[in-house]
Write a structure and sequence with these properties.
It is a single chain. The protein has 92 residues and is mainly alpha-helical. The radius of gyration is 17 Å and the shape is elongated. Helix 1 runs antiparallel to helix 2 (35-65) and helix 2 (35-65) packs antiparallel against helix 3 (74-90). The protein has a single domain (3-90), classed as Up-down Bundle (Methane Monooxygenase Hydroxylase, Chain G, domain 1). The protein contains 3 helices and no strands.
């Protein structure tokens, strides 16, 4: 079983919000809305996908590489936490 199953409801809720945002973007394009509104919707979709991506990447790091919390090696734990923090900053 995949480690994402523990967060399945949370992840599906995120995907459904993204789906709603993409549908709003599609409606705006079909309605020939102002480009500033379309750009705002596009930025919102990009941010939402970035948020989902970091959740999945962080979970993958913690489950398959190293979980900084229980790791006995302080340098390894710090490295894993640094990577998670960098990814969060990069994907904002």
């Amino acid at each position: 079983m995949s480690h994402t199953s523990a967060y399945k409801a949370k992840l599906i809720a995120r995907v459904r919000r993204i789906k709603g945002q993409v549908e709003a973007l599609e409606r705006a394009l079909e309605a020939e809305a102002e480009c500033s509104g379309i750009l705002q919707l596009t930025a919102a979709v990009r941010g939402a996908v970035g948020g989902l991506t970091i959740e999945l990447m962080e979970s993958h790091i913690r489950e398959h590489i190293v979980d900084p919390a229980p790791d006995a090696d302080p340098a390894r734990a710090r490295g894993a936490q640094d990577l998670i923090d960098i990814l969060r900053t990069y994907l904002k």
